Amino acid sequence: MYSDVFDLNKNHILYFGNDYRSLPVINGNHPMVVKYLEVLSDVMEGALMQYSRVFAFRFDLHMPATADAYPDSCCNLAVSRFIESLKAKIRHNRKVAKEKGGIVHSTEVRYFWVREVGEAGRVHYHFTVLLNGYAFNWLGSYQSSGGNMANRIWEAWASALGETLEVAKPLVHFPENPSYILSRDDRDSVNAFFKRASYLCKARTKHYGSGHHGYGASRN
Questions:
Q1: How far apart are the C-alpha atoms of 202 and 120, rounded to whole Å?
Q2: Is this structure's pTM higher than 0.85?
Q3: Which one-letter DSSP state was computed for residue 119?
Q4: What are the C-alpha distances in Å from 142 to residues 21, 75, 88, 90?
Q5: Residues 172, 176: Cα–Cα separation, whole Å
Q6: For 11-60, how does the pLDDT look when each residue is reduced to its tens digit (9 = 90+)?
């Protein structure tokens, strides 16, 4: 059933366990890629080492239909632009908050993403972002016209694609209950997030061998 995964990338080691580094792995999506589990765990633990409270959230980025006309490498370049745009928007938010006075918490932007190809051959990216939970703690209302984290995600993807917000917004998907608050002293909160995010580490639907990276992550 999974022989194609080995053919596509023989460097990957597959994982069939129910937990990884004592962290629970989501059921029904085996096998997982060991490297992806390792990197996801490192990103999460790095955030918890720096911040006692961490705001983590999930979302997906889809390429527009016109992306089929471009090389695979262009898709990953768009993701790189997205990350830089999101970082800039968060820095700007912290700068404005500081100028208003009061206590302002800064934050590193930690992330982990994987590249997948859907049944129709369309490229999409599963993302998780982790921030200082004392700087940010929710995505905000999806109906808001601006100024919250959800809007920053939409605007950053529009900027990365060179598209209008109206075009880019439907290409971003927030799953049900996408946000988590992780506490360094509450392993249940940590376990709940890792179990949910481990979905990104499944071997199924990954696509290798076209000269692009299958995943990306922030450096701790």
A1: 19
A2: yes
A3: T
A4: 35, 25, 21, 18
A5: 13
A6: 678 999 999 999 999 999 889 999 999 999 999 999 999 999 999 999 99
